Amino acid sequence: xxxxxxxxxxxxxxxxxxxxxxxxxxxxxxxxxxxxxxxxxxxxxxxxxxxxxxxxxxxxxxxxxxxxxxxxxxxxxxxxxxxxxxxxxxxxxxxxxxxxxxxxxxxxxxxxxxxxxxxxxxxxxxxxxxxxxxxxxxxxxxxxxxxxxxxxxxxxxxxxxxxxxxxxxx
Length: 170
Description:
The protein is of the alpha/beta class. 35% of the residues lie in helices and 38% in strands.
């Protein structure tokens, strides 16, 4: 009887402590305001002169996929409780490893995205920031032969960085 009373006391104490805190829920280690129910990812425009016509669409869809799969928030066209918007500012290819004096051994595809994130419940979490990632490929390969795979890889890295900045206090 005394043991049951002790367990009941512990449960009541623990439960009362939880109701006093303004909780944030966590999915995959992320913290999202408990008040937030919706999220919007506006279409990211392409302002990089050398990027292909589908780059902006691929990036936007990847970011939408990440926030949809890693949160329980409903995805809205616009005006979500949490909001991402921005543009692709850089898409470039440059040699990075020179060998034999003047020939490149590797080339680097670099993509930069400017992201504005707004959180209508906590303005201290808002940011307007550039994110840059790259992927190298052999100089013997043409960009057109590796471009789709490299873009997919870079988009994965970029969206992870953006998600972590918005939801993991990174």
